Amino acid sequence: MTIIQKYFPHLTLHQQEQMSALWDLYHEWNEKINVISRKDIDNLYEHHVLHSLAIANALKFREGTQVLDFGTGGGFPGIPLAILFPESHFTLIDGTGKKILVVKAISEAIGLENVTAKHLRGEEERGRYDFIVSRAVMPLPDLVKIVRKNISKTSRNSIANGILCLKGGNVESEVQPFHKLADVSPLSNWFEEEWFKEKHLIYLPL
């Protein structure tokens, strides 16, 4: 939790309490349903929560923003972002029902009122959103094909509606089809920890 306060020192007391509660909740649920690698669960705050919050360095979601977390898994990046932006609404979808069960339980346990979790594949989602967020669910061109239908035509934020995607490794081939549009930001611009080297945030307006 200290690492979150290091980079996000202005959290309210309520947000700090919600972030702190994630440690016990994820450890408890991970014993029943494996949503985070057992080897990685003790790196929860650095590798999952802070990683998710990298999106907040690119964009502060305005009140009323609708965000779709595509392939949320155990709730990343959706749950940390929902804590940080209580005036925006986050819809978290995943094709694995057990993972959505965990997302719902954790959201309810920390009192997140701006989260809707659905057991759904991306192709089945029909809603319209300002932004699609994801963590390395699939290659960017494949993701674009599925979610283009879900982008709202009305923009309300400081940048155009589109995709905000967290990726690791070499992303050149993925962004090549969109090289004139895609903006790639190394996470090491924001976070000094070694783990964030070779990790990126891709923004693609749609």
Describe this structure as you would to a colleague.
This protein is α/β, with parallel strands linked by helices. Helix content is 35%, strand content 19%. It is built from 7 helices and 7 strands, in the order αααβαβαββαβαββ. The chain has a 7-stranded mixed beta sheet with strand order 3-2-1-4-5-7-6, with helices on both faces. β2, α5 (97-109) and β3 form a beta-alpha-beta unit. The chain is globular and about 45 Å long. It starts with a helix and ends with a strand. The model has no long low-confidence stretch (mean pLDDT 96).
Instruction: Please state how the strands of the largest beta sheet are arranged side by side.
Output: 3-2-1-4-5-7-6
Q: Report the end-to-end length measured between terminal Cα atoms.
A: 35 Å
Percent of residues in β-strands: 15-25%
Sheet bearing the most strands, described? Answer: 7 strands, mixed
Radius of gyration: 16 Å
Q: How many distinct helices?
A: 7
Structural class: alpha/beta
Characteristic terms for this protein:
alpha/beta; 206 residues; 7 helices; seven-stranded mixed beta sheet
Briefly characterize the structure:
The chain has 206 residues and is an alpha/beta fold. The protein contains 7 helices and 7 strands; from the N terminus they run H-H-H-E-H-E-H-E-E-H-E-H-E-E. A 7-stranded mixed β-sheet has the order 3-2-1-4-5-7-6, sandwiched between helices.
Outline the secondary-structure elements.
Blueprint: H1 2-7, H2 13-32, H3 44-58, E1 66-70, H4 78-84, E2 89-94, H5 97-109, E3 115-119, E4 131-135, H6 140-147, E5 162-168, H7 172-175, E6 183-186, E7 199-205
Parallel strand pairs: 1-2, 1-4, 2-3, 4-5
Antiparallel strand pairs: 5-7, 6-7
Helix pairs in contact: 3-4
